[in-house]
C-alpha cells in the first residue's frame, strides 16, 4: 500500500492548549491506545495481555486499557482534561459505583486522579483504535507499525465505513 500524500502521515507534536483525545480498544489478546489532537496522532501504544488479564471480564479489560494508556500518556496532558473515547458504554458510567468488583473500585479511584471527559462511540465509529486491534500488522511479539501504514489502514477503514452510507461528513 502506498501511503497517502498528505501531512497527516507523521506524528504531530502536542499542542498543550488544545483538547487531547484518547482512543482505546481491547481484543482477545491485546490492548491498544492512540493519543491524538485535531484528528492527528501524537502517540500510539499497544501491548499483549498477560494470562491473568485475559481472564478479566470485558469491562475490566476495557478499564485496564484506559488506566494503562492514561499512565503511559500522562506526561502529555498532566492535569489538563483528556477526552477518553471508548466503544464500551459501561466505562462512561463507571463513576456511579454500582455493582463494582473490588478491582473496579480500585480502578475507579485511580481514574479519579485524571481529569477525564468520557465519550461513547460505537465500535464502527471508533475507527482509530479499531484499525490497530482488528488489522494486526506483524505478530504480537512487540513489532511496531509505521505511522504511514497506520494512516493508510485508518483511511481505508473510514472510507469503507462511509461507502456503506453509515458515516457522517
Automatic annotation (TrEMBL):
Transmembrane segments: none annotated. GO terms for molecular function: endonuclease activity; hydrolase activity; RNA-directed DNA polymerase activity. PANTHER family: PROTEIN CBG26694, PROTEIN NYNRIN-LIKE. It holds the Pfam family RT_RNaseH. Coiled coil: none annotated. The keyword Nuclease applies. The keyword Nucleotidyltransferase applies. Residues 16-114 form the Reverse transcriptase RNase H-like domain. Keywords: Endonuclease, Hydrolase, Nuclease, Nucleotidyltransferase, RNA-directed DNA polymerase, Transferase. InterPro entries: DNA/RNA_pol_sf (IPR043502), Retrovirus_Pol_polyprotein (IPR050951), RT_RNaseH (IPR041373). This is Retrovirus-related Pol polyprotein from transposon opus. It comes from Trichonephila clavipes.
